[in-house]
Amino acid sequence: MALTARAIYLLILSGCIAASQRNDNVYVSGISNACGDVAELLRASSGVITSPGWPFQYPARLNCSWNIRARPGDTVTISFQDFDLQGSHRCSSDWMSISSYRSLDGLRVCGSALPPPYISSQDHVWIHFHSDDSLTGKGFRLSYITGKAEASSCDVDQFHCSNGKCIPDWWRCNSMDECGDSSDEELCVDSPFSFQPCSLNQFPCLSRYTRIYTCLPHSLRCDGSIDCQDLGDEIDCDVPTCGEWLRNFYGSFSSPNYPDFYPPGSNCTWLIDTGDHRKVILRFTDFKLDGTGYGDYVKVYDGLEENPRRLLRVLTAFDSRAPVAVVSSSGQLRVHFYADKINAARGFNVTYQV
Length: 354
Fold this sequence. Notes:
Helix content: under 10%
Number of strands: 23
Structural class: mainly beta
Order of helices and strands: HEEEEEEEEEEEEEEEEEEEEEEE
Distance between the termini: 42 Å
CATH superfamily of the largest domain: Spermadhesin, CUB domain
CATH architecture of the largest domain: Sandwich
Strand content: 25-35%
Number of domains: 2
Shape: elongated
CATH class of the largest domain: Mainly Beta
Mean pLDDT: 82
């Protein structure tokens, strides 16, 4: 499908959310560890949570819990993009509860109406999801962000509320008051967000190109090309192996899809073996990894083996501002690129020569 055709569609983040072992900036994944005896602890500053199996029906007899932990003094804001639980009197069958306490007191919702945004008064939030042994529904998808109640400035992809709060820019003009003062719904002409459900063979998501919510065919998920603002179409996909054995005195290589975003989950190794004893100069002429600074990295080893003792350089998002050069002690280098399944960026281009 041509790029222009992709731009009119919009896609969704699929799967359930899974445990994150690092304090990354964005939490999103596809296999949930939350539906057990211990609540899933989320320390990322933003993320997405879905019910098991979403956007398809969730299983019966589930008890899932998530605990979002913000920095001390910060607050948590939750916004729903999809919601469909079995309805019942007083939500006694299938339900979700959101509270600043571990108890089930707080907001308790069920049915198919989209719940209002939840803005915490504390730096932590508990989310509980329960399904009984009878009927089930499509489930839910929510996104959250943590931050100061009053900030002097916001990131470039965020909206600065009149009350000083920062929210994702794509929450603006969605007919929901995530700011808490309705400033995110002011001066809206045509709302970019629609809560009209997509068909079973489609995903809803915010287009990376048009910044408008619409529906994207399943065929465009996991196709190696990022269409969605939150990268949901390429999250938790099987990523082809990449890298190669380079035997020339000089050459170049780049991250997958460069200069477009590399797929989340990329794992590539390049082996440079010039067959010469002279040193190899490796130059990163362009370098941009995702903004977490920890999840994605490039490691350069002196020689062909992945030997920690011969590690020359580890590059992360913090190395994106200036060209980087690495020099080997001989004619061999190993370059390993790893990207987690959380976010993505433009990637890098590399040249080498003896």
